Amino acid sequence: MGDSQPLFIDITLLRIGMHIHLDLGWMDHPFPMNSFTLRSQEQIDIVRTLGLERVRFSPDKSDPEIQQQYLAADMTDRPPEIEAEEESPEMAARRQRRDLLSSQRASLQVCERQFANASNTYRQAVETVHSRPTVSREQSETLIRGFLSEIMGEHEACIRLLSENAGEKTSLHSINVTVISLLLGKASGLGEQELLDVGMGALLHDIGKIELPGRLRWSDEQFTTSEREVYQAHVAHGVTLGQKMGLSPSALLVIGQHHELADGSGYPQHITDKYLSQPSRIVTLVNMYDNLCNPGNPALAITPHEALALIFAQRKSQFHAATLSLFVRMMGVYPPGSVVQLSDERFALVVSVNSCRPLRPRIIIHDPQIPREEALIIDLEDEPKIGIRRSLKPLQLPKNTFDYLSPRKRMCYFFERARETPSSGENT
Length: 428
Prior knowledge:
Layout: E1 7-10, E2 19-21, E3 35-37, H1 41-47, E4 54-57, H2 64-70, H3 89-128, H4 133-151, E5 157-161, H5 169-187, H6 192-203, H7 225-232, H8 234-245, H9 249-257, H10 278-293, H11 304-314, H12 321-331, E6 339-342, E7 347-354, E8 362-365, E9 377-379, E10 388-392, H13 399-405, E11 413-417
Antiparallel strand pairs: 1-4, 2-3, 2-4, 5-7, 5-11, 6-7, 6-10, 7-8, 8-9
């Protein structure tokens, strides 16, 4: 019985040694390939959390003992009869928690792998921009089209906080700005070509900095007048490199305008909002936000909640009003990375925000009774009795809470498909 007659098997009957195929998109599971042989109970546990009732099964590609057991059975008519073990309520609760934890870890691994791949692509594009500018553009465009293939559907997207070790630090800012700009562009109703221009402009907005001395690649309030002029010249350098790459006029405009502000206080041309393109309005805002959270000097970083509040309260005039309003709604009052105190006085770290339902983010709660590595991500959509009371600075946390939640010094974002997460029955 070969692959020409595919079999389907209930996921409750999966065994180590079976060769299976997952009929899912590449973002919907953490495995390197869709087809593979199950080699551990952990892999089986992860498959059982993916929302599938049955999976395709290839006896011919499975281990010999599996072939002997299953090829003799007429699986097209009935599944193999395997006696199920009795499961107590306590065992069921532990299994449910274990399955949910495995699923959450798998989802994070997918995001971090994709962020690392994006970081490598960006690094390669920067390294080849002088010697092979066309190749650099093609690498960048392939990356952005891959992002778009995942966010252009009907599904909702989450903005996910990653560990500080995801990808390379040199590419963190560019990937952050790209991810959030694409989500904001989608929320703004931009079409696919406009989103491609947003993505290309966002990814490459700082590419001109490779022409600057290393010590001048991050803005510093202590710059002399001449040093500030050298730093600001990265905009013109970026446009020149973008032209060599053959970027679209709209993407070039994003690079040229990513430091312009709606009130005319930006640079290099000091133009006002009516002269800014919509893609530029998006990238300019997101660039400011990420620079506040991830400045060149980490000691000057402020929390995502503080950055959002500062932009809205003190710099509102610098940004297109409708774009800023949409950005605040998308990121939520407590963006990923925010440290918060809950309505029941417990402390938590916001790790994910659904851009369509930002007021009920997903959080990790400090619970001394549960080891940090086993803490579940709690979706506040499923917890109507729990709310967020206020945002805190990380240093305001008790030391044991700070160590448990491990607030990030640098914010690293990626997107993941929003999923319906079943209640675990054990929220903390």
